[in-house]
Amino acid sequence: MGTFKAWVVDKTEGGQNLAFRDFDEADLMDGDVTVRVGHSTLNYKDGLALTGRSPVVRRFPMIPGIDFAGTVETSDHPDYKPGDQVVLTGWGVGETHLGAYAEKARVKGDWLVPLPEGLTPEQAMAVGTAGYTAMLSLMALDAHGITPADGPALVTGASGGVGSVAVALLARAGWHVIASTGRASEADYLKGLGAAEIVDRAELEKPGRPLGKERWAAAVDAVGSATLANVLAMTKADGAVAACGLAQGMDLPTSVAPFILRGVSLLGINSVTTPQKKRREAWARIARDLDLDKLASMTRTVGFDEVGRLGEAILAGQVRGRTVVKVA
Question: Are the CB atoms for 84 and 71 separated by under 8 Å?
């Protein structure tokens, strides 16, 4: 046993304190696999955990970071052996279980998936929970039976992590993609990912009517609140909306009108405790269907020592696309 570098959140009388310090391996939590973390990433939830802006962290001290890619060091799990490359997203890591912004992590092997064939660890973290959630959203729309022939697909929060990957995935699948963003300067970026139209988020974020003009057959919404209510109100008859985020808020000020007058379906996306079979299917589809050149164009890489400044930036909407954290 020894120590390793980690970002650690502690609770103080004044709130929450974040420090980059040595952490004792003996203080890692229970798990049957210990992983040498090579890469992590930045998601909206990570921003909440790093800043304490929302009570995401539910034990202290906590190592934040909900995603990692790394190499197995020790394992008592039958599916993994030392040297295996693995990926973890979700399962309360970085919230209730010591997380990914560290050089080592000890977790349950059942939470892991093998590094998908065709992806490097860096690419897997460029995807991360955000891109994985985008794929789960696309899979939900597919399972519902909605196709590009039914009309356009809207993506809200399009220049963020979930949105950027959703735009790229939907465009490659043949959808006419309408991207909603509050940053007009990102229009060329989003069109480069495959968006055919750009909508100002101001059109969607204010309180609206129970029903509006039918504009899209499908949507991936990472924003919630009034935006999701307006998305539902403007979804075509028998369309579907995959709800996977809450950047604007957790509330949903809507009515039953879209559901009972147009047959619109609201599909909830849970990326945290996805069953293993579905989780592996989603990662296999990501490796197969995501244009890796487009993934590279939406991704930047930062050093491990830069994690401390990332939380405020992503919550302020200053982070475009995906951010990979190179841990080792």
Answer: yes
